[in-house]
Design goal:
Strand order of the largest sheet: 1-7-4-5-6-2-3
Shape: globular
Distance between the termini: 52 Å
Helix content: 10-25%
Number of helices: 3
């Protein structure tokens, strides 16, 4: 599975960008992967329905991921809640080979991953499924991942229920990227006392 190199601007959703910017600030401040306990984006509660938290179980090339949260909208998209289950088992045989390598790439690269795939709802309306994965560490490799999952349709409304399992057509990836450039975020600053301002 190929991933292109990208900077944070590849993420189009304003809300996802805010989540990523918080991760980038922590990454730049400490020069390493942030700890999950330090991750406190603004308006986190507003994004709760689109967030899924994972714990990494095991090491090596193919560690498994345990779903730690309900992710209400995503539970609807997949048809059931996955809390406490292994992600590969939750996805099933059809989706597992398409999805798990993306998480493994996040763990391997120790960097955020952003993907867009095309899916169709029950009524064959086209939907873009945008996935942002952000890795976290307690100092011994990636031990947690936070996923922000967004669904967008040019048709406007669509049916979220069973979106990922609605028919036999598998998701088609149109973008797979690793965010490995410009790994910093500078908030719009205020003028510091004593700074010289020149008007030309």
């Amino acid at each position: 599975m190929d991933f292109i190199s990208a900077n944070p601007a590849i993420v189009k959703s304003i809300k996802q960008r805010e989540l990523l910017n918080c991760w980038l600030r922590l990454y730049a401040k400490h020069g390493r992967l942030p700890k999950i306990d330090d991750y406190r984006p603004e308006r986190l509660a507003e994004e709760a329905d689109d967030l899924v938290y994972y714990t990494i179980d095991g090491t090596g090339e193919k560690p498994r991921l345990i779903i730690d949260s309900h992710g209400t909208r995503m539970s609807s998209a997949y048809g059931s809640t996955g809390r406490g289950r292994y992600l590969d088992e939750y996805l099933g045989a059809k989706l597992e080979p398409l999805v798990i390598p993306i998480y493994h790439e996040c763990i391997r690269q120790r960097l955020p991953i952003f993907t867009i795939s095309k899916v169709s709802d029950l009524y064959n309306r086209k939907v873009d499924y945008e996935r942002l994965l952000m890795p976290f560490s307690d100092g011994a490799g990636v031990n947690r991942i936070v996923a922000s999952l967004k669904t967008i349709s040019d048709d406007g409304g669509f049916e979220i229920r069973n979106l990922m399992r609605a028919n036999d057509v598998l998701p088609i990836y149109v973008l797979r990227s690793v965010i490995d450039r410009d790994l910093f975020h500078k908030s719009p600053g205020r003028i510091a006392p004593g700074d010289t301002i020149e008007f030309v």
